[in-house]
Every structure is written in structure tokens, then in C-alpha cells.
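#lab-general

N.A. 3:47 PM
ok so I finally got the sequence cleaned up, no stray characters, all 380 residues accounted for. can someone with queue access submit it? mine expired

B.Y. 3:52 PM
send it over

N.A. 3:53 PM
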Amino acid sequence: MSFPIHGSLVTPAQARVDLSAIRHNVAILRGHAPDAEMMVAVKADAYGHGLVPCARAVLEAGASRLGTAYIQEALDLRAAGVTAPILSWIITPGEPLDDAVAASVELSAGTTWLVDDIAASARRAERTARVHLKIDTGISRGGATAQEWRALVERALAAQAEGTIEIVGLWSHFACADIPGHPSIGLQLTAFEEALAVAEKAGVSGPRVLRHIANSAATVTLPEAHYDMVRPGIAVYGLSPIPELGDFGLRPAMTLSARIAMVKRVPAGTGVSYGHLYTTDRETTLALVPLGYADGVLRGAANLAEVMVGGRRRTVAGRVCMDQFMIDVGDDQVSEGDEVVLFGPGTGGEATAQEWADSLGTITHEIVTRIGSRVPRVYR
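B.Y. 4:20 PM
back already:
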């Protein structure tokens, strides 16, 4: 099958992103949490799918808010004309807080120094910064510990009293929501409830303060964790947050493909690629696929991951190189320019991102977010 050409775009490889699948997935997730607001995580270039197109798609589909890891991601969305509320949650000293406050980007704070820095930026901008206070309930990453929580809340309330910040959220993040029944889930919910009680007693309350802890896995399996808002990420892009429980009706949005660059006939005993990890056991045909680890194809895919070409699956033959890898197609008739599908929704018999993840001992998040900037995204 020849590689499809989208308009005038002809490239060695491309990632086709189905925005209708993303809209479908948002609808599925809304069905799991009908009474909660939805903030979709579009960090990491929307998990490799493209920041701005995906942000627009999820908002059109009914999400009310967006989440980014970094301030610059939020500012890029504002520069593209996205006006919906955006929360950014990883902030280091010296970042453009002034720009974020001026652009109405909501900010997470899990330390008192950050509350102070946000308040200072708000004074300079002569605006009130909207802040979500983060409690570490057991993942031991960002957020205040239980011992630090009261001081954080009091510092934020003092800034709120002077009008520099408004506390609009109280939040945390699960460590093991993707492991159903894990004992940490209940412990984290208890810790979150205790933190909410401390904040409420101190004076942080009201319908304008969103309580949120649910990621994709919690959105589909833990209704008791939905609170006022859920924050799905990987599920929005059609990849199951708990693969052993099925796909939850989600549709994978990305199809990664390339065009064969070269075909050659070789004898039995031919070593293929660096280190000769693969050697042909018969006379056969090799095909060169112009994607490599510089594009996000994991080097460890050698002799493990499967691709689709000519209606049949073939295993990556030998080491994945920086810009290319080889496949052994036997006696099949393939030609330069034929399409090779690395992964997709699986509806055409091709491997899925989940299968790639399983074969490489990783998670789908890594498979899709690693796809690099040399691979253009094509939307439909």
C-alpha cells in the first residue's frame, strides 16, 4: 500500500492524530465523572500529540480547563489564542511568573517561598494571581508535606488577605491509582481529606475552591476521588490508564508511520545493523524504515517490537539506529515508498502503542511522548 499524502506534505515519516478520537475519549471520560469539572493534561506537547490542536479539541469536546507541567507550555497556549483556564504546576525559582500572572495562568504552589514569589509577581502586575495549593498525600513529589501544610495555607491566606493571590484550588496526586486495590489509594484519600479539613478550618472554603486529585486511572475507577474536578491525561489520547482492565471504550488517537526508503535482497547469514543482533537465516529481503531513536523509537525495540507492512506484521530486525531501523520482509514484494505502520489504533491489524509498551517493558506514556519534532503531526 502506498503511503498517503496529506496535501503537499511528503515526509519520511509522520504521526497522524485523529482529533475525533480525542473528542470521543473526552466524552467517555465525562461519562465517568458527570458531576465534576474536567481539566485535561496537555503537558509534554499533549503527550506527543500536539499541544494547540489537542487543547482546542478537548475544549470543544467539553473539557473546561487545561493543565500543563510548565509555565512556558501555558504561555504557548495563550499565544495561540486559547483563553480557557490553565493550571501550571512545576515551577522553579526565576521562571516568568510575571508573564504567567499577566496571562491569567493559574499556578500551583506547594512551598511558602513560591507563594511569596507569586504574590510579588502579582504586585508588579497589579493583578490577583489564581493559585492552587498542593498537598503531598503520599507520592513524595511536589506539594507540601502534612507537617508543612498548615504553614503553606496560612501564608497563602495572608497573601489572599492583601489581594495578591486568590486560592482557587486544593489538590494532590495519586501514586498508585493505576494499581486497583493498592493500599496507598485509601491512605492518600484519607490524607487528602485531612488536608482539606485543615484548610477549611483555616478559612479556605467555598464553591470557588476546586478540590482535585483524580488522574486518568482515578477518573475511570475511583468515583470517590472525583471531588470537584478530574484531571485525565493519557486516557484522553486513547490509551488505557489500567491496561489489565481493558480499554474503557477509549480510541487511540495517534498512528505512527513511515515510508520505506530502501529495499535490498541479501543472502543467508547476513548481519543486520549495529552489533549484528539480527542475522538472516535464509536469503531474504530487508527494508529500511527512516525512523530511529532520534525520533523517539526506543533503541530497545530490536528484535521485539512489531510493525505492519504489506498487510503483515514484521519484527524490527536488529538494532534501532539514530535515524533508521531495518525489517526482514522475507519474500514479500515491498517497494520504496510503501507505508510501514509502527503503531496505531489496531483496527487494521497493526500493533498498538500498548503492544509496543508491553514488548519493551514500559508504559504507553513513554511510547507516544518520545516521538520527536522531526516527525510532523498530521491532523484529521
